Amino acid sequence: GAESMEAAARAARYRALAAACAGEGLEVAVAHTADDQAETLLLGALRGRVTGMSERSEVEGARVVRPLLGVRRADTEGACAELGLSAWRDPQNADTNFRRVALRREVIPQLSRIIGGDVVPALAQAAGDAALDNAALRTPPTTDCAELAAMAEPRRRRAIAAWLVSEGVEVTRRGVGDVGKLCTHWHGQGPVAVRSARQVGQRLEVARIGGKLALLSGH
């Protein structure tokens, strides 16, 4: 679907940027704005996960910085116009088949109408707070089921999500929960179906093998 294609394209872009920066000690500065932050919060909520972008993070091996998270998209466009810079516009940004575009063009304007004001600042602030919370509770990825089962649920969910991300798997709340049950409620059940975030349409499975989680090719 459109979302899988978008996720795969995003992963490929960051892998290419990571390769270009390899060995140079460089960071990748991206132009995500407060509007993007608000959209990220809503996208995460639709997947059952409260998420936000942090000012610095590692994505597909690239060291990413986001200096414009506190700036509105309209202000960046205005600055480009004032400086005589031509900003490239991704044609996908007009396609509401993509969930993020639909949120941007339809849902967020409707939310603003409902509250009688601009909804983006509050959403962006909540996303920023979520990013700080996630950073404070960050747990290193592990595949050891006994270790995961012994963790408090918030840390277990984050450890599993971190492992899935490192393996190029699309993370959803349901997926993380089902993988967690392989550790906390083990009774010999079959593997959990997940989707690749790197290759469109690729189906994968997470299984428990020898007391550890393992990522397998789907059938």
Automatic annotation (TrEMBL):
Q: Which InterPro entries match?
A: Rossmann-like_a/b/a_fold, TilS/TtcA_N, tRNA_Ile_lys_synt, tRNA_Ile_lys_synt_subst-bd
Example GO molecular function: ATP binding
Which superkingdom is the protein from?
A: Bacteria
Record domain tRNA(Ile)-lysidine synthase substrate-binding: where: 144-204
Gene Ontology cellular component terms for the protein in this record? cytoplasm
Query: Domain tRNA(Ile)-lysidine/2-thiocytidine synthase N-terminal, which positions?
Result: 3-106
Keywords annotated in UniProt: ATP-binding, Cytoplasm, Ligase, Nucleotide-binding, tRNA processing
Which Gene3D superfamilies does the entry link to? HUPs
GO terms classed as biological process: tRNA processing
**Keyword check for Cytoplasm:** yes
Record protein name field: PP-loop family protein
Lineage in the entry? Bacteria, Bacillati, Actinomycetota, Actinomycetes, Mycobacteriales
